[in-house]
Amino acid sequence: MILYPSKHPPRLAKRVIPSIAQRGLGYGVAIGATLLAFLLRLSLDAYLGDRLAYAAFLVAIAVTTWYGGIGPSLVAVVLGGLIANWVFLHPRYALSFTDLEDQAGIAMYLTISFALVGFAQTWRWAWRKTEEMTQELRLEMDRHRQTEDEPAHVESTKSAPPSQRQRRL
Question: Domains of the chain: which residue ranges?
Fold first, then answer.
């Protein structure tokens, strides 16, 4: 019995390249989440002052990483870092990396951001591989069942048990 029309079993589809619309959606999530984080942090500016300038942007990065992928996540990291430094750190409305406290803050922000992106992307990769392996295993089990059922059916028609053969004679 031929299980497949060709010699080789069907392969699972390789990772499909996302369309321009899908990529645009990911970058839209990055910009939208960063904008929402900015508005949230701006609304709390009277209470926080120069403290926790990057905190809201870490949430935006996590959301972008989950929904947008690695490219949009990196856009959210850069955009959030620049906005936080420009708007919320002293001196305001100027990029400053000269103060030791500012350097430590941006280093901590980048470390946590890249850890978020790295862990989430590794998890997504592992999840995708698990789904592919599960699908391959199901195909293999189906193939095994088909080959296992076929010989048993052929053997039962070739020879009957001795008691039935004797009855025929």
Answer: 20-130
